[in-house]
Amino acid sequence: MVALFAAENYELAVAGARLSLGPLPPSDAAALGQAFAAMDPWASYAYPADAIASYLAGTEIDGLRFLLRVDGEVAGALGLQTVWLRGPYIRFLAILPTFQGRGLGTAILMWIEDEARKAEQRNLWVVASQINTGAIRFYEHHGFKQAAQFDGLAYDDRIEILMRKQLAGG
After folding, report:
1. For a disulfide at 37, which of 20, 32, 49, 117, Cβ 3.0-4.6 Å?
2. How far apart are CA 85 and CA 18, in angstroms?
């Protein structure tokens, strides 16, 4: 079995551009927190920019934060829980608006899936808010299926949807 996400830096080719994934420096967290707090679903939840920045700058066992760059320019962030129910859990994936629609999300999902398969993991996981219909469509398009729903998890009148892509055994 191969170690899951063993390298610190990754390079992916996306539509003639170079997508780099590397450690997210805490110095970039505040600006990204501000940008993401202005985007849905975080804006709809009135989620504070400093809370997003704190997550992005934080560390945890089996948790990785990646800064996404396209041809050297900051394009977004990715947070992964590498060990979660027999596969990685995508805790956070955000692409800045000027980089959306370029295939970055697809390339990142394909990379995560490839790494998980190499490490003989069974699943990929993500949670999307019911109000984030674009994310739900995106993940469903890439083979994720609803595994559970949590009524009132983040807010009383909202539903969070746990989605799973089964990689093996099914």
Report:
1. 49
2. 32
Average pLDDT, consecutive stretches of 10 residues, N- to C-terminus, the chain (170 residues): 76 91 94 96 91 94 94 96 91 96 95 93 95 93 94 76 87
65: Cα within 13 Å, side-chain hemisphere: 18
**pTM (2 d.p.):** 0.91
Q: Kindly list the structural domains of the chain, giving each domain's residue range(s) and its CATH number in brackets, ordered by start.
A: 10-166 (3.40.630.30)
In this structure, which amino acid lies at residue 2?
Answer: V
- 71: its two tokens: 């041809």
| C-beta of residue 91 within 8 angstroms of C-beta of residue 82 | no
Element (H, E) at 93: strand 89-95
